[in-house]
Amino acid sequence: MASTSIPSENETPIEDHSTFQNIMRHIMSVKDPPISILLIRHPPVRTSIEASNQRQVPLHSGAKAMLVCQKNTDQFTLIVLPAHLSCDNKKIAATLSIPSSKLRMATEDEVRKITGCIPGAVPPFGALFPQNVRTVIDEKMAQSTAHPPPLTFNPQVTLFSTNDSEWPNDLAQVALPKFTDHERIDCINFNIGLRTISCSIPFNDYLRILGENNYSICDISK
Question: CB 3.0–4.6 Å: which of 10, 41, 63, 167 could bond 190 by disulfide?
């Protein structure tokens, strides 16, 4: 029987750009006004603390996205909460109207299949995944915003460019909206489909991208 090669802890898994590209296509289609977005490139990160350190932003401003499932079904939900908090499974189960004993975390294979991403890269946009899922946002996320990453990056961090290889070819002639207000404190920060690219975006713009029919805001953290 052929064996499957599993990347070691120090290896960077091969990542699919499709989810990142689909999200960017959607973001660039939002007008009146356009979305304010800052994209940065950094070394691969998997944990919220690693990501916060690379972005040079407070941990609480990270939007941690986790996929959960109702046991013995194919019903998945994306949970989004501030990175310094933990999921409260009882509250999540109550929100989903199921017993807490029926709730489980998605496996790594399920994460790849549903989101198109590897763990650590999952963005908080359930409606924009290859398989659309409901997004439930913790009510504390709106109060956990902060400033965007400073432009005085550490040496390993750079601004993402539309000339970079991950940018969709069909958007080659489209410029990223200018992020002009670096003093604003209403941003959330997250990896946007890849472990090497982070996004900073105002919380209200984040909700605009999701679409009002694709999310709910509840108390789901502890």
Answer: 63
State the distance between the two ends of the chain, measured CA to CA, in whole angstroms: 45
Distance of CA 193 to the CA centre of its chain: 7
**Environment class of residue 197 by beta-carbon count within 10 Å: exposed (0-12), middle (13-18) or buried (19+)?**
buried
pTM for this model (two decimals): 0.92
Cα–Cα distance, 30 to 100 (Å, whole number): 37
Those residues whose C-beta lies under 8 Å from the C-beta of residue 211, and which sit 6 or more positions away, are 127
Distance CA 145, CA 141 (A): 7
Q: What is the pLDDT of residue 179?
A: 84
C-beta of residue 141 within 8 angstroms of C-beta of residue 82: yes
Residues of 208-219 as b/e, b for ≥16 C-beta within 10 angstroms? Answer: ebbeeebbeebe
Distances in whole angstroms, Cα of residue 111 to Cα of each of 53, 82, 108, 114: 24, 20, 5, 5
In tens, the pLDDT along 189-204 reads 999 999 999 999 999 9
Residue with the bigger pLDDT between 184 and 138: it is: 138
Residue 177: per-residue pLDDT: 83
Closest CA to 9 of 166, 113, 123, 119: 119
